[in-house]
């Protein structure tokens, strides 16, 4: 870590705002940057060193770039769904400076070390922000997990129910036990899509345009049971596990109790569970379809409480697009996935503010905690000396109406179309370079990140 002293070389850039969100709170400050790193957080009126450039954002908020650890980029193989060029532009436009790509929906999936190399080769020249990778745990790739870990993936995703794509089968309880034992053996992290296949199979499966039928087909019990099993298995071998895209508030007491008992479990939820409700999904509107599903307003209230009390650790997008033809009006067969990358900060901030939370809370949920989840918290997730100079500049009180035409992701389908959101991202900065400002993008300058240690 740098101490911000003279050893860092001359200050090249000073970012100034009356509202800088630091780990100690929000204050007027000037942030000094040298060689892509924050070297000091100084007084607002600190003298700008000779040779340094000043960017004064006035009263717009300077916050650490967001870290989104749940993104399906789908590149290579399903690039018509999404790709590194479009996904990283959408992310940057939304104030995200680091994303971690999920191991599935690309071809190949990231389930072997040579597949990871293929993915990295594809991503390298297209990344407008920093990009890391999750590996995948399949029924037959236990021997590949350690090589993937050594090659730098941040952990391993497992499905406990069918994933939606044939090349990424789910683990049964025995296979989960084997993968967990292997991963715990080298100190890795398993992240799980937690829905129990038996509960899903037992639920009424009606096709058609009615959202209530779809909701009934993915009951809370499926999530609750899968999470209970995951926690039990993690506790048995002292493995570190993370619950992806938590939707069922019924599972919150389980997670809270496990944390109290010392099980190494964390949990995330997503902007759509926090800002959209089952009651308002129009029939046939499969842009709202994801698994587990968006649930009722009363469920949403409890998710917010759990964020406030720390039972849920972080908020990440689960951006998972497809082409428009797969988003049919039949909820049973339409592709499940919500495209929220570019809108996540504004969507969460709009609702957080309405519920009395501050931007510091949003930064904790969407930047600091996800950075910690993947062990990047020495470099990302806070404005303090020694970290990467990654920032978003936000006009927090300004509103806009979501126009799909203004979105950067490949297929401009969004559940947020027509909504009025609060918080406009003015510019996004990666290691001291402006990635996007007022819709103008720089050439891609993102780096490929690997797990450290
Ligand atoms: Zn996902």
TrEMBL record:
It comes from Streptomyces aurantiacus. Its EC number is 3.5.2.5. GO terms for molecular function: allantoinase activity; cobalt ion binding; zinc ion binding. Keywords: Hydrolase, Metal-binding, Purine metabolism, Zinc. This is allantoinase. It comes from the Bacteria. Pathway: Nitrogen metabolism; (S)-allantoin degradation; allantoate from (S)-allantoin: step 1/1. InterPro entries: Allantoinase, Amidohydro-rel, DHOase/Allantoinase_Hydrolase, Metal-dep_hydrolase_composite, Metal_Hydrolase. The gene is allB.
């Amino acid at each position: 870590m740098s101490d911000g002293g003279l050893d860092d070389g001359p200050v090249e850039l000073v970012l100034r705002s009356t509202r800088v969100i630091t780990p100690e709170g929000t204050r007027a400050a000037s942030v000094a940057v040298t060689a892509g790193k924050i070297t000091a957080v100084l007084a607002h009126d600190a003298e700008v060193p000779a040779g340094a450039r000043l960017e004064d954002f006035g009263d717009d908020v300077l916050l650490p770039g967001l870290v989104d650890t749940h993104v399906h980029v789908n590149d290579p193989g399903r690039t018509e769904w999404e790709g590194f060029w479009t996904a990283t532009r959408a992310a940057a436009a939304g104030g995200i400076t680091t994303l971690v790509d999920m191991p599935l929906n690309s071809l190949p999936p990231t389930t072997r070390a040579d597949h990871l190399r293929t993915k990295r080769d594809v991503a390298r020249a297209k990344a407008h922000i920093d990009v890391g990778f999750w590996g995948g745990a399949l029924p037959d790739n236990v021997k590949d997990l350690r090589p993937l870990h050594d090659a730098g993936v941040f952990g391993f995703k497992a499905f406990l129910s069918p994933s939606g794509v044939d090349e990424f089968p789910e683990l049964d309880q025995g296979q989960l036990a084997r993968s967990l034992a292997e991963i715990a053996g080298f100190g890795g992290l398993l992240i799980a899509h937690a829905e129990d296949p038996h509960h899903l199979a037992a639920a009424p499966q009606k096709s058609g345009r009615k959202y209530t039928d779809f909701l009934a087909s993915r009951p809370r019990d499926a999530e609750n049971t899968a999470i209970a099993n995951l926690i039990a298995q993690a506790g048995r071998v002292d493995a570190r596990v993370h619950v992806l895209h938590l939707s069922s508030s019924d599972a919150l007491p389980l997670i809270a109790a496990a944390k109290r008992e010392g099980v190494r479990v964390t949990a995330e939820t997503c902007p759509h569970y926090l800002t959209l409700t089952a009651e308002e999904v129009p029939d046939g509107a499969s842009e709202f379809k994801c698994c587990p599903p968006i649930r009722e307003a009363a469920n949403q209230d409890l998710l917010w409480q759990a964020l406030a009390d720390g039972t849920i650790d972080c908020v990440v997008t689960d951006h998972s697009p497809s082409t428009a033809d797969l988003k049919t009006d039949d909820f049973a067969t339409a592709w499940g996935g919500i495209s929220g990358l570019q809108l996540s900060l504004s969507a969460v901030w709009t609702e957080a503010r309405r519920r009395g939370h501050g931007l510091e809370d949003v930064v904790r949920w969407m930047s600091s905690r996800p950075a910690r989840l993947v062990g990047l918290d020495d470099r990302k997730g806070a404005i303090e000396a020694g970290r990467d100079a990654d920032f978003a500049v936000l006009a927090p009180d300004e509103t806009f109406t979501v126009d799909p035409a203004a979105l950067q992701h490949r297929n401009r389908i969004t559940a947020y179309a027509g909504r009025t959101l609060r918080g406009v991202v003015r510019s996004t900065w990666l290691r001291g370079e402006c990635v996007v400002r007022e819709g103008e993008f720089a050439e891609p300058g993102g780096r490929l990140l690997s797990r450290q240690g």
